[in-house]
Amino acid sequence: MNEQQRVDQAQVKQVGKKFVKQEDNINRIKNTSSEEMIAKYFQTSYEPQAPDIKKARKRRKEDIQFHYDFAIPEDIEKIGKGKKFLIRTYGCQMNEHDTEVMAGILIEMGYEFTADTNEADIILLNTCAIRENAENKVFGEIGHLKPLKLEKPDLIIGVCGCMSQEESVVDRILKKHQHIDLIFGTHNIHRLPQLLKEALFGKEMIVEVWSKEGDIIENLPKARKGKIKAWVNIMYGCDKFCTYCIVPMTRGKERSRKPEDIIQEVRHLAAQGYQEVTLLGQNVNAYGKDFEDISYGLGDLMDDINKIDIPRVRFTTSHPRDFDDYLIEVLAKGGNLLDHIHLPVQSGSSEVLKKMNRKYTREEYLNLVKKIRKAIPNVTLTTDIIVGFPNETEEQFEETMTLMEEVGFEAAYTYIYSPREGTPAARKVDDVPEEVKKQRLHRLNALVNKQSAESMKKYKDKVVKVLVEGESKKNPDVLAGYTEKNKLVNFRGPKSSIGKIVEVEITEAKTWSLDGIIVENMVEVK
Ligand code: 5AD
Ligand code: SF4
């Protein structure tokens, strides 16, 4: 299927009993006033409407199609010559990587990167919807950009990423932020060239958010940030439907890339000299579950990638429910598979986990940890935790504190629960005051800091392998990099070690980082 056929096919979607063509919507938008536009737009063309969990749960039967024919249309191939773009990224690694793809597309169109808003001809905000404060930040930035747009009417400002998949967000931008030129969803990234053309030559705001989420487009260009570490998507979407989480609605259903495409990408990165890859997915352990013709999961993929000559391989994010014995067996082989596992637990209370629809109990999580530790004795575990889930009791919170200690997590990303419109948990009446939630977060963070500091102390006077990424942000005379267990190390050494894995002797352990000195000048180790 070529680009035009795909576009035609994907642009047609069922709304009620009618099919609506995206082009027609754009024309309609262009020919109507903003108020009319909002009303008509949401009646006719926008799916999903408000994130709809029932609709989302029914989506499994759709086919997944793979495309290898992305190309920038000839008439807009050089449209960006002499112009500059800036993409501001919010949120997770998936967004970081999507930004690399969008940057790749823009560079192919002739645009150059700039970090200066005043210099940019295109500004894209690649947004995150996971918590309310992430959204507030974006709306703040949208407001800040208004004077610039008034000063430079030709500037194109676009909003993309997870927030653009939410009706309430699109609605708010349409009503209150008319200086935005373009809104597009997470399934429409490959349409950036055509959308830009519409935005450049049209007068109205262009909105394209598809609910069609089954496609995987393989040959999108990527402008990777750096030449040392690379993100590699292995799957998209999530079907876990944790009750607090917006991701299954903003990122669509689970769909896995073909093993051969992933392996080829990793091989290519290795050949280019990359030292580390992180395999990405919202729920990487579900990798391969959607394959109908082969039985091949994350364990098989890791086993195949273990054979590729690239020094470090990580993966994120795991779901405990799908962490199977075969994956543990493969990870225990070591080699380039690092012994650091990020395993979000979310809560230490089985009752809360049930309400969260996490599909495991505290005991099952602890058993999994036991199994992993038995197979990989030196493993480092880190996690994500939400405090203040609706009606979380003091006892339930205490169970999270004891689990934190019992597992011995060396780091944790901790969050106060944030209600997300359209998710089941957001409908719950919540009797926990905000102040109590803040105190719980504070207590949890004190414990996280203590455990992190303790884990760091073990490294004092020891030699660790560090992948050197560059100069330290605080001091250009100091280099910075990460150990196999993802501990940040600041050390003195020659600049020529940047991009290499070197041995560093740790002289001081801090709460979140280590200080050290390179062992011998330029010992490169693999
Ligand atoms: N409120 C707070 N934290 C959340 N996360 C996901 N959804 C929410 C929410 N509604 C957290 C989870 C997840 C991490 C990426 O973000 O801990 O693992
Ligand atoms: Fe969200 Fe992760 Fe749960 Fe999926 S597994 S719904 S991404 S928290």
UniProtKB/TrEMBL annotation:
<dbReference type="Pfam" id="PF04055">
    <property type="entry name" value="Radical_SAM"/>
</dbReference>
<dbReference type="InterPro" id="IPR007197">
    <property type="entry name" value="rSAM"/>
</dbReference>
<dbReference type="InterPro" id="IPR005839">
    <property type="entry name" value="Methylthiotransferase"/>
</dbReference>
<dbReference type="Pfam" id="PF01938">
    <property type="entry name" value="TRAM"/>
</dbReference>
<dbReference type="GO" id="GO:0046872">
    <property type="term" value="F:metal ion binding"/>
</dbReference>
<dbReference type="GO" id="GO:0005829">
    <property type="term" value="C:cytosol"/>
</dbReference>
<keyword id="KW-0411">Iron-sulfur</keyword>
<dbReference type="InterPro" id="IPR013848">
    <property type="entry name" value="Methylthiotransferase_N"/>
</dbReference>
<keyword id="KW-0808">Transferase</keyword>
<dbReference type="InterPro" id="IPR006638">
    <property type="entry name" value="Elp3/MiaA/NifB-like_rSAM"/>
</dbReference>
<feature type="binding site">
    <location>
        <position position="162"/>
    </location>
    <ligand>
        <name>[4Fe-4S] cluster 1</name>
    </ligand>
</feature>
<keyword id="KW-0408">Iron</keyword>
<comment type="subunit">
    <text>Monomer.</text>
</comment>
<dbReference type="InterPro" id="IPR002792">
    <property type="entry name" value="TRAM_dom"/>
</dbReference>
<keyword id="KW-0004">4Fe-4S</keyword>
<keyword id="KW-0819">tRNA processing</keyword>
<dbReference type="InterPro" id="IPR023404">
    <property type="entry name" value="rSAM_horseshoe"/>
</dbReference>
<feature type="domain" description="Radical SAM core">
    <location>
        <begin position="224"/>
        <end position="454"/>
    </location>
</feature>
<feature type="domain" description="TRAM">
    <location>
        <begin position="457"/>
        <end position="520"/>
    </location>
</feature>
<comment type="function">
    <text>Catalyzes the methylthiolation of N6-(dimethylallyl)adenosine (i(6)A), leading to the formation of 2-methylthio-N6-(dimethylallyl)adenosine (ms(2)i(6)A) at position 37 in tRNAs that read codons beginning with uridine.</text>
</comment>
<dbReference type="InterPro" id="IPR006463">
    <property type="entry name" value="MiaB_methiolase"/>
</dbReference>
<dbReference type="GO" id="GO:0035597">
    <property type="term" value="F:tRNA-2-methylthio-N(6)-dimethylallyladenosine(37) synthase activity"/>
</dbReference>
<feature type="binding site">
    <location>
        <position position="238"/>
    </location>
    <ligand>
        <name>[4Fe-4S] cluster 2</name>
    </ligand>
</feature>
<comment type="similarity">
    <text>Belongs to the methylthiotransferase family. MiaB subfamily.</text>
</comment>
<keyword id="KW-0963">Cytoplasm</keyword>
<dbReference type="Pfam" id="PF00919">
    <property type="entry name" value="UPF0004"/>
</dbReference>
<dbReference type="GO" id="GO:0051539">
    <property type="term" value="F:4 iron, 4 sulfur cluster binding"/>
</dbReference>
<feature type="binding site">
    <location>
        <position position="128"/>
    </location>
    <ligand>
        <name>[4Fe-4S] cluster 1</name>
    </ligand>
</feature>
<dbReference type="InterPro" id="IPR038135">
    <property type="entry name" value="Methylthiotransferase_N_sf"/>
</dbReference>
<dbReference type="InterPro" id="IPR020612">
    <property type="entry name" value="Methylthiotransferase_CS"/>
</dbReference>
<feature type="binding site">
    <location>
        <position position="245"/>
    </location>
    <ligand>
        <name>[4Fe-4S] cluster 2</name>
    </ligand>
</feature>
<feature type="domain" description="MTTase N-terminal">
    <location>
        <begin position="83"/>
        <end position="201"/>
    </location>
</feature>
<feature type="binding site">
    <location>
        <position position="242"/>
    </location>
    <ligand>
        <name>[4Fe-4S] cluster 2</name>
    </ligand>
</feature>
<keyword id="KW-0479">Metal-binding</keyword>
<feature type="binding site">
    <location>
        <position position="92"/>
    </location>
    <ligand>
        <name>[4Fe-4S] cluster 1</name>
    </ligand>
</feature>
<keyword id="KW-0949">S-adenosyl-L-methionine</keyword>
<dbReference type="InterPro" id="IPR058240">
    <property type="entry name" value="rSAM_sf"/>
</dbReference>
<protein>
    <recommendedName>
        <fullName>tRNA-2-methylthio-N(6)-dimethylallyladenosine synthase</fullName>
        <ecNumber>2.8.4.3</ecNumber>
    </recommendedName>
</protein>
